[in-house]
Amino acid sequence: MKVVVTGAKGQLGKELVKWFRQMEWNVYGYDKDELDITDAQQVISVLGHIHPHVVVHAGAYTKVDEAEKEKEKAFFVNAYGTRNVAVAAEKVGAKLVYVSTDYVFDGAQRVPYHEFSSPNPINIYGKSKLAGEQFVRDFHSRFFIVRTSWVFGAYGNNFVKTMLRLAKEKEEILVVDDQYGCPTYAVDLVQKIYELVQTEKYGLYHISNTGYCSWYEFAKIIFSEMGVNVRVQRCGTKDYLRLAARPSYSVFDHMALRLNGFELLRHWRDALREFLHAYEVKH
Ligand SMILES: NC(=O)c1ccc[n+]([C@@H]2O[C@H](COP(=O)([O-])OP(=O)(O)OC[C@H]3O[C@@H](n4cnc5c(N)ncnc54)[C@H](OP(=O)(O)O)[C@@H]3O)[C@@H](O)[C@H]2O)c1
Fold first, then answer.
1. CA–centroid distance, residue 23 to ligand 1 (Å)
2. Residue 221's CB: how many other CB atoms inside 10 A?
3. Is 12 in the pocket of ligand 1 (CB under 6 A)?
4. Closest Cα to atom 1, ligand 1: which residue?
5. 44 class by beta-carbon count within 10 Å (0-12 exposed, 13-18 middle, 19+ buried)
6. 80 catalytic, yes or no?
7. Which atom of ligand 1 is nearest the CA belonging to 148?
8. Any alpha helices (H) in 198-236, and if so which ranges?
9. Choosing from 28, 125, 194, 205, which is the catalytic residue?
10. Domains of the chain (ranges plus CATH)?
11. How far is ligand 1, taken at its centre, from the CA of residue 4, in Å?
């Protein structure tokens, strides 16, 4: 089996490449230096040459705050880039996985968002990712749209690594306590994506670990699991001004996994413990 992974040098892309290789698939992992998704012709030519069975599209413009200033770039990559991937994947008959985000929601709800909840993004990044979802629906016939959230893992930068670094540099850390979401271990996510693509249960899926927390609670658990002694103070979103607005609540209900007979992912605390153990061994 052949799989093409876009954004292959990103946090999730690296994990995808590693897992599909382990599963003995032929993996063609490309980042923007080898396959720039904004170049429609290049995308068609690369996919036409490889003829993959599956394309996992993890390449994206992910700088949430900068997107507010670089609006057109965000839409160019996340919307039109995704259209280019959808058109080319459809042309070669490959199943398509598009990785999307919890930031498609506005956060006004106080009950978990399921796959039929109405999106209403409140920042440019979320709007551009939602536009990408729409292009996938418009131009591809056998797709999985996988919305995920608060990803942590071995590669790239993420909240867990940032907290561990800050704990070494500071005596006290301020963390936002009024934004709630679902942490997701990249390894668990790629394994579920792998499971999905072997089925024909196409559609939209919310995939994260189960359970939820605020960023503050997440930080506290990271430090307690690692036995790190640092003062963690809660603060509100209003005390931590950033360019892009964030949803205050983007907790997922995993209804599509449940109704389609897939097992839910383990609780985020169990996944975090496994990640931290592996991280500790390496550092
Ligand atoms: N991380 C999270 O918490 C999270 C949450 C929800 C959804 N997601 C989604 O998950 C996916 C993977 O995210 P990630 O965390 O792995 O982000 P990431 O580490 O930023 O990876 C994205 C990769 O895409 C590449 N890329 C940018 N522009 C491209 C282009 N024109 N053509 C091809 N590749 C391009 C980036 O390269 P450069 O770095 O060189 O620009 C980067 O290597 C994205 O779709 C993101 O929206 C992530």
1. 23
2. 19
3. yes
4. 151
5. middle
6. no
7. 6
8. 215-226
9. 125
10. 2-156+182-210+250-265 (3.40.50.720)
11. 15
Ligand 1 proximity of 78 Cβ (cutoff 6 Å): no
* Per-position pLDDT tens, the chain of length 283: 999 999 999 999 999 999 999 999 999 999 999 999 999 999 999 999 999 999 999 999 999 999 999 999 999 999 999 999 999 999 999 999 999 999 999 999 999 999 999 999 999 999 999 999 999 999 999 999 999 999 999 999 999 999 999 999 999 999 999 999 999 999 999 999 999 999 999 999 999 999 999 999 999 999 999 999 999 999 999 988 899 999 999 999 999 999 999 999 999 999 999 999 998 767 7
Chain centroid offset of residue 50 CA: 25
Q: How far apart are CA 272 and CA 268, in angstroms?
A: 6
Which pLDDT value is given to residue 71? 98
Residue 227: which residues within 8 A CB-CB, separation 6 or more? none
CB of 32 within 6 A of ligand 1: the answer is yes
d(CA 196, ligand 1 centre) in Å: 20
Closest CA to 58 of 39, 32, 34: 32
Q: Report the atom number in ligand 1 closest to the C-alpha of 36.
A: 32
Residues 146 and 55: their CA atoms lie apart, in Å, by 13
Q: How far is CA 175 from the centre of its chain?
A: 21
Q: At what angle do helices 40-50 and 82-91 cross, to 10 degrees?
A: 30
What is the number of the ligand 1 atom nearest to the C-alpha of 60? 24
Task: State the distance from the centre of ligand 1 to the C-alpha of 124, rounded, in angstroms.
Answer: 15
